[in-house]
Amino acid sequence: MNPDHNVARCGSGYRSGNDSGRRVAPVASLLAIVLTCALPQAWAQKATAEETLKSATETAKKIREATGSKPAPEPIPAGNPCDILSSGDVQRAFPGVKAGERSKRLEEYGITECAWKGPSGQVVLVAQESTSKGTVKEDAMGMAQGFTDPFSQESLKNVRFESFSDVGTPAMGFVEKKDPKRGILGDGAMLFMRNGERTISLGSSELAQRERGAALKTLGELGKAASKRLK
After folding, report:
1. What is the pLDDT of residue 226?
2. Do 115 and 125 form a contact (C-beta atoms < 8 A)?
3. Which of 24, 28, 35, 216 is packed most tightly, with the most Cβ within 10 A?
4. Would you tell me the crossing angle of helices 29-44 and 3-10 to the nearest 10 degrees?
5. What angle do CA 172, 173, 177 make, to 5 degrees?
């Protein structure tokens, strides 16, 4: 996909300056734009891990150039993001998965990230940790916009958001398969957990291919394991 198309779609309504009729994106909004645009669209294309990384990185760069914003000044979370989940936790959810690999592509925005690849080399799970304001509901709805038709007011309403009360910390997410008739443009399974301003998100396009009830259960189990990081 042309990166310019990504910016046009995801960055609509966000421009620098004082253009009449358009909202101005504060620097803090760049984090949400990058998360919403870069990951879901790469997953929706079922790209290779390398293509996903390249696409997301180029999208982030173009958004930054278009808005004139700078990377977030706050430091990245301490610790290795690949320790958010143990190898056993990930193996139970994705048998045959390889060891997690840390990516630094979003660290200039204050986000640490780890990706786990399946036997075929495709990314099956991504974990991110950051510090931000807001609620898990806002996090989940913001990310879901990256999977839905931006020209349909009903598309976001078709995403079934779920609260995970047994995770041990405020948590919300969704599991949806691509369904253009409902305005859902890509496969996605995501969970957001928060303790104060500390946030962990888990995302997997592979989970979205499973039966929804089973996928939600697996997402919740991964969430329980990951939430210990927020204690």
Report:
1. 94
2. yes
3. 35
4. 130
5. 165
Amino acid 69: pLDDT: 60
Q: How far apart are alpha carbons 164 and 217 in whole angstroms? A: 10
Burial of 177 (0-12, 13-18, 19+ CB in 10 A): middle
Residue 34's nearest CA partner among 68, 6, 15 is 6
Q: What is the DSSP string of 159-198?
A: S-EEE-TTSSS-EEEEEE--BGGGTB-S-EEEEEEEETTE
Helix (H, G, I), strand (E, B) or coil at 125: strand
The answer to whether the CB of 116 falls within 8 A of the CB of 125 is yes
Euclidean distance between CA atoms 79 and 229, whole angstroms: 10
Distance from chain centroid for Cα 88: 23
Which residues share a beta bridge with 172?
163, 192
Cβ of 22: how many Cβ atoms within 10 Å? 13
Segments of the chain with pLDDT less than 70:
1-74
**Beta bridge pairs of residue 115:** 101, 126
User: Which amino acid, 104?
Assistant: K
Q: Count CB-CB contacts under 10 A for residue 207.
A: 25
- Structure tokens belonging to residue 100: 């997690």
Nearest-angstrom CA–CA distance, 140 and 190 = 8
For residue 214 the two structure tokens come to 């089973």
Contacts of 65 (CB under 8 A, 6+ apart): none
Question: Domain of 38?
Answer: 3-230
Taking the alpha carbons at both ends of the chain, their separation in whole angstroms is 40
Paired with 204 in beta bridges are none
Query: What letter would DSSP give residue 23?
Result: P
